[in-house]
Write a structure and sequence with these properties.
This protein has 109 residues and is mostly helical. It is 39% helix and 0% strand. It has 2 domains: 51 residues, no CATH class; 40 residues.
Length: 109
Protein backbone atom coordinates (compact mmCIF):
# COMPACT_ATOMS: atom_id res chain seq x y z
CA UNK A 1 0.00 0.00 0.00
CA UNK A 2 1.51 3.29 -1.07
CA UNK A 3 0.42 5.70 1.63
CA UNK A 4 3.10 8.33 1.17
CA UNK A 5 2.88 8.43 -2.62
CA UNK A 6 1.08 11.59 -3.78
CA UNK A 7 -0.28 9.84 -6.89
CA UNK A 8 -2.08 7.28 -4.72
CA UNK A 9 -4.09 9.93 -2.86
CA UNK A 10 -7.82 10.25 -3.60
CA UNK A 11 -8.84 13.22 -5.74
CA UNK A 12 -10.33 15.09 -2.76
CA UNK A 13 -6.93 15.14 -1.01
CA UNK A 14 -5.08 16.72 -3.90
CA UNK A 15 -4.65 20.42 -4.53
CA UNK A 16 -7.47 21.92 -6.59
CA UNK A 17 -6.45 23.45 -9.92
CA UNK A 18 -9.66 25.31 -10.68
CA UNK A 19 -10.15 28.65 -8.93
CA UNK A 20 -13.91 28.30 -9.40
CA UNK A 21 -14.12 25.15 -7.34
CA UNK A 22 -16.05 24.87 -4.11
CA UNK A 23 -12.87 24.14 -2.13
CA UNK A 24 -11.11 27.25 -3.40
CA UNK A 25 -14.13 29.40 -2.55
CA UNK A 26 -13.98 28.14 1.03
CA UNK A 27 -10.26 28.87 1.25
CA UNK A 28 -9.37 25.18 1.35
CA UNK A 29 -6.85 24.97 -1.48
CA UNK A 30 -4.22 22.88 0.31
CA UNK A 31 -3.98 19.14 0.66
CA UNK A 32 -5.61 17.32 3.53
CA UNK A 33 -2.57 15.02 3.46
CA UNK A 34 0.84 16.24 4.50
CA UNK A 35 4.06 14.26 4.15
CA UNK A 36 5.43 16.06 7.21
CA UNK A 37 2.40 15.90 9.52
CA UNK A 38 3.12 13.88 12.69
CA UNK A 39 -0.17 11.96 12.53
CA UNK A 40 0.38 10.92 8.92
CA UNK A 41 3.93 9.79 9.73
CA UNK A 42 2.63 7.71 12.65
CA UNK A 43 -0.13 6.26 10.51
CA UNK A 44 2.33 5.36 7.76
CA UNK A 45 4.70 3.70 10.25
CA UNK A 46 1.85 1.79 11.87
CA UNK A 47 0.60 0.46 8.52
CA UNK A 48 4.15 -0.45 7.52
CA UNK A 49 4.67 -2.39 10.78
CA UNK A 50 1.33 -4.17 10.40
CA UNK A 51 2.18 -5.19 6.84
CA UNK A 52 5.48 -6.70 8.03
CA UNK A 53 3.63 -8.70 10.70
CA UNK A 54 1.03 -9.95 8.22
CA UNK A 55 3.70 -10.90 5.65
CA UNK A 56 5.66 -12.88 8.25
CA UNK A 57 2.69 -15.05 9.21
CA UNK A 58 2.46 -18.14 7.06
CA UNK A 59 -0.41 -20.61 7.00
CA UNK A 60 -0.14 -23.46 9.48
CA UNK A 61 -0.03 -26.87 7.88
CA UNK A 62 -2.48 -29.27 9.50
CA UNK A 63 -2.22 -32.35 7.30
CA UNK A 64 -5.03 -34.54 6.07
CA UNK A 65 -8.13 -35.67 7.87
CA UNK A 66 -10.99 -37.90 6.86
CA UNK A 67 -14.70 -37.40 7.25
CA UNK A 68 -17.19 -40.24 7.33
CA UNK A 69 -20.22 -39.53 5.19
CA UNK A 70 -23.18 -41.61 6.31
CA UNK A 71 -24.83 -43.88 3.80
CA UNK A 72 -28.25 -42.65 2.67
CA UNK A 73 -31.15 -44.28 4.48
CA UNK A 74 -32.92 -46.72 2.10
CA UNK A 75 -36.27 -45.71 3.59
CA UNK A 76 -35.64 -42.06 2.62
CA UNK A 77 -34.91 -43.13 -0.94
CA UNK A 78 -38.18 -45.12 -1.06
CA UNK A 79 -40.17 -42.15 0.28
CA UNK A 80 -38.57 -39.80 -2.25
CA UNK A 81 -39.29 -42.24 -5.10
CA UNK A 82 -42.93 -42.57 -3.96
CA UNK A 83 -43.38 -38.78 -3.86
CA UNK A 84 -41.78 -38.42 -7.29
CA UNK A 85 -44.04 -41.18 -8.70
CA UNK A 86 -47.15 -39.51 -7.28
CA UNK A 87 -46.20 -36.16 -8.81
CA UNK A 88 -45.73 -37.82 -12.19
CA UNK A 89 -49.18 -39.42 -11.84
CA UNK A 90 -50.63 -35.94 -11.30
CA UNK A 91 -48.73 -34.72 -14.35
CA UNK A 92 -50.19 -37.51 -16.46
CA UNK A 93 -53.76 -36.57 -15.43
CA UNK A 94 -53.42 -33.32 -17.46
CA UNK A 95 -55.19 -31.24 -14.82
CA UNK A 96 -53.14 -28.04 -14.96
CA UNK A 97 -50.01 -29.38 -13.28
CA UNK A 98 -48.59 -30.55 -16.59
CA UNK A 99 -46.23 -27.65 -17.28
CA UNK A 100 -45.24 -27.02 -13.68
CA UNK A 101 -44.12 -30.61 -12.99
CA UNK A 102 -42.02 -31.24 -16.10
CA UNK A 103 -38.60 -32.58 -15.14
CA UNK A 104 -39.42 -32.79 -11.42
CA UNK A 105 -37.16 -35.02 -9.35
CA UNK A 106 -37.13 -35.59 -5.60
CA UNK A 107 -33.81 -36.10 -3.85
CA UNK A 108 -34.07 -38.54 -0.96
CA UNK A 109 -30.72 -37.70 0.68
Amino acid sequence: MEVMDYASLPHFCRKEDSKSSKHHALGNIGNCFSFNHAFHQQLYNHIKQQSIIVESISPIRHGSFYVDIPEPDPDDAKIAKTIETEFHKLENQKNGFTNSLNGLTVNGH
